[in-house]
Design brief:
Blueprint: H1 4-28, H2 31-45, H3 48-67, E1 71-72, H4 78-83, E2 86-90, E3 96-107, H5 112-122, H6 129-140, E4 149-154, E5 158-163, E6 166-171, H7 173-178, H8 185-196, E7 200-206, E8 209-220, H9 224-233, E9 237-241, H10 246-256, E10 260-262, H11 267-279, E11 284-289, E12 303-307, H12 310-315, E13 326-328, H13 334-368, H14 370-374, H15 380-395
Parallel strand pairs: 2-9, 2-11, 9-10, 11-12, 12-13
Antiparallel strand pairs: 1-13, 3-8, 4-5, 5-6, 6-7, 7-8
Helix pairs in contact: 1-2, 2-15, 3-13, 3-15, 5-6, 8-10, 13-15
Length: 401
């Protein structure tokens, strides 16, 4: 698993070396002796010990990964995970539980009920979780929604509609300001305070004037901070990204105890950031949601992990699993899986080193010492014994996985 290239190279080297030794002893002795030397050298240098050790390691790792609830969709990528030093992950879904809920309403020039009703009317057909939460809350409070038309959702920005001839927009503050919407100093100050509390903020505008703010928050597991700290101790740097404002990302980073978080990051920007990290020598793992992936192009990261859910499995929406390397039940399964991958990598490297240096020692011994006894290089039955001995030695490190 992950060592097919080195095994193939070792097999080619074994054939070349066996041909050289066989040709030399065939020219200096007899053709029969040259054939025996060829067979003996090839047997000793075969990559069989390393291949068997890798196969056994794969079986043991698959069993242990299954006990963690992980599915190795591409088992060979576990070797790359062992070398990963950076984890890139979105905020929503990976760290949060359930759907967002409204934490605060800050209207300007209208009531809280009017703010929520107008926003819900624009978000009536929303597919984004925040839009769905706004509409669901308005329905729970039995609010009467104003009539709107020409509703449209703007990806990564928000939603807009027409109401009594005015354009109503609900979404990111930066998007609304780019559309020429004016915000009062009080609203911008309140938005900063909401961001610092770790709340997502969407604004409502009517025409060219902002009419209020809606703060939303997610529930997070108490163990998330401990999981991220464990990853940091394992020399993996967690980097959070979100499409929300940079101030919100900084507040989340402070809450979670991580050093790096990126806000205002779309899928394309995230892909560019991943490529930048890779250009600086980092090996990057992307952790995403299977049911609601972040649309980052497949193959951008060195390893692609997804968090699968029973809901996505039932509805058949595990679209990210088609391009993912490893599926895990939650981020809490990542630290033990990382430790498992590193134990496997170390064990396989030790097995391959044992096989390589063992074959080298046997060849040197055959070249120097065997001719002293019977004048031959090495008989095939001795070579088979040596090969079996190397197989046993190479399998010993696999027990530590």
């Amino acid at each position: 698993m992950g060592n097919s290239i080195s095994s193939r190279q070792q097999l080619i080297a074994a054939i070349v070396l066996a041909l050289l030794f066989g040709f030399y002893h065939g020219m200096t002795g007899t053709i029969v002796r040259g054939g025996l030397v060829f067979c003996s050298t090839l047997l000793v240098c075969l990559p069989l010990p390393g291949m068997l050790a890798t196969w056994l390691a794969q079986k043991r790792v698959l069993q242990q990964a299954e006990s963690l609830g992980a599915a190795l969709l591409r088992p060979q990528r576990l070797v790359v995970l062992a070398e990963t030093d950076t984890l890139l992950f979105p905020y929503r879904g990976v760290l949060t539980q359930g759907e967002p809920h409204i934490a605060a309403l800050m209207p300007e020039g209208m009531s809280q009920a009017g703010l929520l009703a107008l926003a819900a009317a624009a978000e009536r057909d929303a597919t984004h979780p925040i839009g769905c939460a706004i509409y669901a809350t308005a329905m729970e409070r039995c609010l009467r929604l104003p009539r709107v038309s020409a509703q449209a959702e703007q990806a990564h920005h928000g939603a807009e509609a027409l109401c009594t001839g005015d354009t109503v927009r609900v979404g990111a503050i930066d998007w609304l300001r780019a559309e020429g919407v004016h915000f009062s100093a009080e609203l911008l100050t309140t938005a900063d305070q909401m961001y610092c509390r770790g709340e997502s903020v969407v604004a409502l505008s009517m025409g060219k004037r902002a009419r209020g703010l809606i703060a939303l928050s997610y529930d997070m597991s108490d163990s998330v901070r401990a999981v991220l700290a464990e990853l940091a101790r394992a020399d993996m740097t967690p980097i959070l990204f979100t499409s929300s404002a940079q101030k919100f990302a900084h507040a989340l980073a402070k809450q979670l105890g991580i050093s790096t978080a990126y806000g205002n990051l779309s899928a394309k920007k995230c892909a560019r950031e991943t490529q930048f990290l890779q250009s600086r020598g980092h090996i990057v793992a992307l952790l995403d949601m299977a049911a609601n992936p972040s649309q980052i192009p497949p193959g951008t990261a060195d390893v692609h992990l997804v968090i699968s859910s029973s809901q996505s499995a039932e509805t058949g929406k595990d679209t990210a699993s088609d391009v993912a390397d490893i599926a895990i039940p939650s981020i809490a399964a990542l630290p033990p899986l990382l430790a498992l991958s590193r134990r496997m990598s170390v064990a396989c490297n030790h097995s391959h080193s044992i096989a390589f240096f063992g074959a080298l020692i046997f060849l040197l011994s055959a070249t120097i010492f065997f001719p002293w006894f019977d004048g031959s290089f090495m008989s095939p039955h001795i070579a088979v014994t040596c090969l079996l001995f190397l197989v046993l030695l190479a399998l010993l490190p696999i027990r530590r996985i």
